[in-house]
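Design review, sub-item: ligand-bound model
Attendees: FS, YL, KQ
YL presented the inputs for the flavin-adenine dinucleotide complex:
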Amino acid sequence: MQLRYNLRGAVWILVYLLFILAPLFALLAGSHPPTRDFWTELSAALGYTGLAMMGLQFGLTARFRYVTEPWGEDVIYHFHRQISLIAVALVMTHPVILVAVKPELLAPSNMLDAPLSAYFAFLSIFSVIALVVTALWRAALRIKYEAWHLTHIMLAVVAVTAGIVHMVGSSFYLVDPWKRTLWIGLTIFWIGLLLYVRIAKPLFMLRRPYRVTEVRRERGDTSTLVMQPDGHPGFRFSPGQFGWLTLWGSPFKITAHPFSFSSSAAAADGRVEMTIRGLGDFTNEIHKVPVGQRVYLDGPYGAFTIGNPADMHVLIAGGIGVTPMMSMIRTLADQGDKRPVVLYYGVQDWDSITFREELEALKARLNLTIVYVLAKPPAGWTGEQGFINAEMFKRHLLPPYADHEYFICGPNVMMDAIEKSLGEMNVPISKYHSERYSFA
Ligand SMILES: Cc1cc2nc3c(=O)[nH]c(=O)nc-3n(C[C@H](O)[C@H](O)[C@H](O)COP(=O)(O)OP(=O)(O)OC[C@H]3O[C@@H](n4cnc5c(N)ncnc54)[C@H](O)[C@@H]3O)c2cc1C
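KQ shared the predicted structure:
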């Protein structure tokens, strides 16, 4: 299974490189314009490459399950952010070099007489700057996620389209009609990816709605939505995976919210549950969802799943990061799995332990040990307290530690600290799996 994922991952990396580099090499084929100085040629090459990389971002965020499976969605979004910054740096270097080589380009008379394609270059550059500023400093600028998401898509479309119009309009390397066709074809492909996500996929989801059959209040300002497929069999998921939930509207809504499935993956009737903590404007309204409400689910996604042969599963959860663990535990119990499972569960206090009663009851159905780690323990508490750390692992796990399979989900600072601790305990990276609840 892992080997198949690795192979598939390698193939997709090759396809990615092909999409970025092939259009550049195609420019070198056929007839060439007269050679210009080195810096001008370099600047053009950087512009072409940056643009090809930017266009392919539509593919990275298109949620193609088959493509993202080998890495997991959080890794893909992280890559999207990092590679976008490189693409933007390349695109921005293009005009910087040109102006450095020919400062007269900035002279007012030249600016006024500039061809139309130059104005598209300005439009593209301004959109790119706005894209970066709003993506990096969204929280500091206090932009609501939904408003940012819509703006982000619009700016990306404008940046890429204006860049292509500038390129085709400047036409220096695109004298051959087939080269022009190739780049216009690429643009249509990139925009097609966006149309697939925004129109084709929602149309598919529209025919496969879900109904809320129960809304359960849980400990810790949290609610569970129980959802049943309405008129279709639903999908199967692996414990630990997540889906995108669209509530209060049609699947054409720009922003869906990602939540792990918290129910057992062994449910035969397609029922799925998501357990959601009130942390913002969307999640704070979950407890008000009426039974019978129609919702849409896009999934399953993610590579954070049990399935590798392991003698012992060590689940490490911080706060609401317990939801994928709950799905794993419920599924193992339903499957009658007798292998030991240890859950490290970091929470604020005893009263806000989501699923506390059910977890205790599940101990009777599987070989489950729970180590609660309380940030604010009650008087007389003799269990673990503070932050989950390497000492706590050593107190409750049997060596060799590298033999167990670890799953970590919680706030970023907690995950960073735990990954570091596991590294210090010589647990190889292939033995631990992380799910980050922030794509930022
Ligand atoms: C893979 C994954 C699984 C998750 N599973 C759970 C879960 O099981 N239970 C749970 O309570 N929470 C889960 N979350 C977190 C949850 O998605 C956010 O808390 C929620 O979307 C916040 O929405 P809001 O409007 O209430 O809060 P806001 O205050 O608007 O947002 C808080 C932060 O959440 C992020 N966020 C907001 N909206 C989105 C969105 N549409 N897409 C991506 N990120 C967004 C942004 O970084 C934002 O700054 C998960 C997140 C991810 C990425």
